[in-house]
């Protein structure tokens, strides 16, 4: 079974919305305008690219990333990976042609089937609604969280607010950096 990894920049209060400057959110761009940049705090991002064998995202994240990431040198490896977009509304004619193989999955059952295929880790960037569905369906195996020392209040959150049984996580890697960022790599305990 393939490992499904959710990776996110989150504030201390769990907000993941618009970390890179996406429009429409009042605190947009909070990752780099509010906290001093230290390259070593972002080493996990390079490791994710090296270790991932596929990308999974929701429609909104695909529509945000696909016009930009294919031409960004820092995301060059992602261009070569197969991409899967979970959406009930996206159509093949709306997929970009310069970002490699992209497959549309229509539901979480198709994600579960993808996890059963041969191959290595599948990485999920962004995709708040998709993360909620994946977490509720028990499909996430690991979280890579870069936690910023910020309280943003309102905004999309990484974790769903579904009333459910306790989900235990096991901390398998952690680090703290001089700028206050914390890396937490957590496996979902089954």
UniProtKB/TrEMBL annotation:
Pfam families: RibD_C (PF01872). Residues 2-183 form the Bacterial bifunctional deaminase-reductase C-terminal domain. It comes from Streptomyces prunicolor. InterPro entries: DHFR-like_dom_sf, RibDG_C, Riboflavin_Biosynth_HTPR. This is Dihydrofolate reductase family protein.
């Amino acid at each position: 079974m393939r490992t499904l990894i959710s990776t996110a920049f989150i504030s201390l209060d769990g907000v993941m919305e618009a970390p890179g400057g996406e429009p429409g959110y009042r605190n947009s761009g909070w990752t780099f305008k509010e906290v001093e940049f230290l390259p070593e705090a972002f080493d996990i991002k390079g490791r994710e690219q090296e270790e991932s064998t596929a990308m999974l995202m929701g429609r909104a994240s695909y529509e945000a990333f696909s016009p930009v990431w294919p031409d960004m040198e820092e995301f060059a490896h992602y261009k070569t990976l197969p991409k899967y977009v979970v959406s009930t509304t996206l159509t093949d004619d709306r997929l970009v042609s310069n970002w490699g193989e992209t497959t549309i999955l229509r539901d979480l059952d198709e994600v579960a089937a993808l996890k059963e295929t041969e191959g290595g880790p599948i990485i999920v960037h962004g995709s708040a609604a998709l993360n909620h569905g994946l977490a509720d369906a028990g499909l996430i195996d690991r979280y890579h969280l870069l936690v910023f020392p910020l309280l943003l209040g309102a905004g999309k959150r990484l974790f769903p607010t579904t009333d459910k049984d306790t989900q235990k996580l096991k901390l398998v890697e952690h680090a703290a950096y001089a700028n206050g960022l914390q890396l937490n790599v957590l496996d979902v305990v089954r």
